[in-house]
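notes to self, project folder thing:

trying the whole complex as one job this time. last attempt i did each chain seperately and stitching them together was a nightmare. two parts in total, labels are on each line so i dont mix them up again. if this works i'll redo the older ones the same way
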Amino acid sequence: MTERCYLDWNATSPVRPEAAAAALDALRPGLGNPASGHTEGRRARQLIEHARSEVAAFLRVSQQEIVFTSGGTESNAAALWGLLASDGRPENRSLLLSAVEHPAVMAMAGEMERLGVNVERIPVKSSGSLDFVALEEALGRNPGAVVAIQLANSETGVLQDLAAVSKLAHRSGGGVHCDAVQGAGKVPMLVGAWGVDTLAVSGHKLGSPAGIGALFVRSGARLAPLIPGTQERHRRGGTENLPGIAGMGVACRMAALEVPRWQALAALRDTFEATLVDRLPGTAVMGSDAPRLANTSCVCLPPGLRGGVAVAALDLEGFAVSSGPACSSGVERRSPTVEAMGFGADAAERTLRVSLGPGTGEGEVLGLVAALERVWCRGKEGVP
Amino acid sequence: MRVVVAMSGGVDSAVAAALLVRAGHEVIGVTLQLADLSRKGLGVSRCCSTTDVAMAGEVAAQLGIRHHVLDMERVFEETVLKPFVESYLAGETPLPCAHCNASVKFGELLTITSQMGAEALATGHYARLSREGGQPVLLRGRDTSKDQSYFLFGLRRNQLSRVLFPLGDMHKHEVRAVARWLGLPNADRHDSQEVCFVPEGGSYVQVLEKLAPDRLPGEGELVDPSGRVVGRHPGFHRFTIGQRRGIGVPDRRRLYVLEVRPSENRVVVSGREDALRRRLQLRSVNWLDGPAEGVLEAKVQIRSRHTAQPARVRLDIRGAAEVEFAEPVLAPAPGQAAVCYAGDRVLGGGWIVSAS
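result (full assembly):
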């Protein structure tokens, strides 16, 4: 196989060798069940608390506010369940979420709807930013509603104004959950200033092994446990994933120092987008009018070239990119985000997401443009 | 060479892919998600369901080839499902597989094949292709009981020239034997009998009920050819021309549906002798054998399970044609295709507009 070029960092980041080493180290003999009262248990506990302090430092919150989970999906589910079921009667509650939330959040919202929660989806503008007029109206109809809002969209990278959402939600008497799985580590984590009650992060997006995540629960916030048990101060039952937690601690410590590197990717992304629009007339960049992650480029390809096909064709050319949120069945579906931004199903089918990472070079993004141009031309000529 | 194989999850396309891999080609499996009607609440539809996609992926993994799943639901809905509904509501008997072949499988997917840098698109159809003087010639599959050339008549020559049918020379039992020999996970999966988007054990009526619930006709009259009312029907969309079962009118003869008249909400029924037709008018003729003009003798097939019958075909350069059978044929249905053969060779065909 030819040399590979990985430009799908929003799907997952390569595991950091340091995180892998920490995870492996946590599998050494001599570590017991963290719940046990003996030396082996204590060692395991220390390892967990050390990692917890690193995650807390990364988010600039206190250690007591961090709960380890199995990943971003569980963190999101635990937060929504926890906030909506805090008084034991979710059927009396309302959940407002943006129309561009990640499928994981959407899926949990669907489950809550089935349990009787009144769920409303708040539209976004064509820029991808939340429609605050619609949010205010929805809060007016549903005082005390829980609001779920992402930090950054996984497809477009568009950042939401979390502080403004929190202010409105709190004024209405409700709680705010933030899905920060995509944005974490790519922008400074100002969790205190954002004012959210809960916030989900995933380990593997930060370079730890997959299968570990964390949920920030603001001190004082009332949450019903999704998985009851005595671990994690009764917030999440189940014996802790020691290697995952150790890996995530290291990943967070390193990620905290790398935010400037992620932000510096804006220049490279802009080069990519400008070159692509120039070489493939009819290409449009989605979300570029809103504040967005510096590493993410969501482009709508010219008519005749499907995003899913581009992904497959570029894979053959050595490039790893994606056409929407990663889906376990491997189906390249049309982009729900681009559709929610009002561009229509046609544009959503032509969406391609390119996400850069530290170390991505100009040669790689220009190589990608050239490969896309080849794919595009082959389709026009109808001959290979 | 690099070849894209359309993999449905069934045994035929799996063996097609396997044969191409063995022949040394760089094979890329593509599964089209066409109509997951289970997500539209139509129960388990056999084709395009999650299990089919997963099966295609399993086969691809076993063969060690790349596999991509493409969401083509919208184009399928526009070019196949909607015309299918319209056709039934207009009293016709649609042939969705032929439309899908022309516009999706060998239309859009052929463009995708080019975009992937592949030279050819292969499918598990039972049909053969040969080349004569640089032109592709479409032939019936060797296994005549499985032959699918009838559904492929609408492909243009420039489409056929980039297509491979690896199973064309094989019999179904041989395909299964190869699948078992290779240990493919779907070697003993049962064959599909119905159109892919019709749910297992169900009928097309359920699809119409799902896709056009507000436009379905209500009860109406069953009449004989003279216009005399002989009974009631529960909605003309439940009847197809040539149908014998479920007419629900006692008669000493075996009754056939002769005609469906949407504007009158009537279904015309009568005995076999009234269902015979000698002449067909065709539209949108696709001719594969030389220029589409003149008069010729051919054997013409008017539905998927029909033995082609001798006829004289008059081609009109504007894309119409008239077929005159030597002996009358039973209940040709508007919406179906009339495909002309010379032996095994597909000469071309068109869509039946009317019969007399």
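what i see at first glance: Chain A is about 40% helix and 15% strand.
need to look closer tmrw
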